[in-house]
Design brief:
Layout lengths: L3 E6 L8 H9 L8 E5 L2 H9 L4 E3 L1
Amino acid sequence: MSNQITVKLVRSLIGTQKSHRDTVRGLGLRKLNSVSTLEDTPAVRGMIRKVQYLVQVL
């Protein structure tokens, strides 16, 4: 498992901007506390940075 990032949704999407909800969905996260493992690419890192207040990198 080289170059993998695990991301967990730790805050609710209620009241957030639509673009942020779409970004979280693009990361493969749906419900609260859902976890997704993704390739470590600049695009994924940018998505995580955009919604850093909603997610936690494990």
